[in-house]
Sequence to fold (498 residues):
Amino acid sequence: MTAVNDGLTQSDWDNLTLVEAVAAIRSGRTTSRSGRMTSHGLVQETIRRAKARADLHAFAYIDETGALAAASAADEALRNGSPGLGLLHGVPIIVKDTIHIRGMPNSAGTPGLRDFIPAEDAVVVERLRTAGAIMLGKGSMHELGCGPTGYNSIYVSKSGEIGIRNAYDSTRIAGGSSSGNGAALGARIVTASLGADTGGSVRIPAALNGAASLRPTAGRYSQVGVSLISPTLDSVGPMAQTVADLELLDRVITREPEVAALTSLKGLRLGVEQYFMQNMDEDTAEFVRDFLQELRDAGVEIIDITMPELAKLNDGIGFAVAVGEHYDELASYLAQYRPTMTVEQLVAQIVSPDARHAFATLTMPRQIPAEGMTDTMVDVGPAYEKAINVTRPALQQLYRDTFVQYNLDGIVFPTVPVVAMKANQEACSRENFGLLTQNTRPSSNAGIPHVGIPVRLGKASGLPLSISIDGPEGGDRRLLAIGMAVEKLFGRIPGPRC
Fold:
């Protein structure tokens, strides 16, 4: 096989993980021993791959000059034996275009913020830099984070194709709203990234593009330097090639001790709630049946569980809290970072029809559909107060009770009930919004940790299929240990054929 960069083959680069990249840069060798890796070579190859898959619209911005200079400095530090090199030394990482990187645009996927360049890093970015990571650029996204598809009209190819596209089939959606991160990981352009998640925005694009993801327990990661929809619901979350990569990123951000994969899955207790098994397409349904049986064969106890009123509690939180906080949060963000711009001026420049509709019908008038009625709108105020003071605490207690009652290590289900759908305006319908976020919203609303694990390609579609495990509040590190063990059982899925 022909060498591509640093003497490494195409297969070497295609299969590279974050953990392997870190080790290879430090040692100067790859796991395959076919070449020697440098930070400069890794950054150079990452940029080459990004340009080769420009059809995906995965990147909102790439700091090519800055990243290559930082990589050269990282290699020099290694040659000189500099002490105290960080856990991510010399590895390029991208972040969603809502997470501030000093000196780079932070557009949030909308024209009104295209020229905004933060002067300081977000706290989570500062943690990555301190560990030696190189900030390569920004992942593109659904406009202002207002959708799970990545079908953003700001990104248009020369042939007229709209939005961020799926790494395995560019006629399909990447998912959202951390869309570019998912596409760049799926295309094996980068090994790691940071996204941000309100109701599935990290986990959906990771799942649809064959990447791993973690939504941490609410409040575990800093929100400083991140443009948010809802401070209550939003969380930064890592997205990477493997769960082991997620563990490393989470360790760097939280500064907690390393955890290893469980040595055995035998005796692990995972619950299955039928709410999460609704509306599956044929590929996903067959995959879930096979996956659960393979877990049983590995010694996992699969427990049928019932969570009374899960759907009702969940429905009473998401829109009420997101809409209840969105306008004020956006106004506060603009006042701090873009004081000459009002929310109204920003919204006037929105280009994507679904984002424009969401602002016009929900955010700006501060209204949501009346309970049980899709065509009647009511003031969000009472629903928001009920969600914050009654419904969300009840959902959180339901999860606590469920984990105790059934003595569970986690709750398992398909991350998304369907494979990636065709990329068009119909993908952005209200029905598809509900379908794509069906299984990710409950853990967002409850604020509990959730790990997403790519498992295989669909037999009929050839598209990535992923499972998720929800864990108890604060159980993030244990959840990652479980996820790494599951990952070892099933191995990595093949990359896309380009």
In short: The mean pLDDT is 96. Residues 26 and 79 are 10 Å apart (CA to CA).
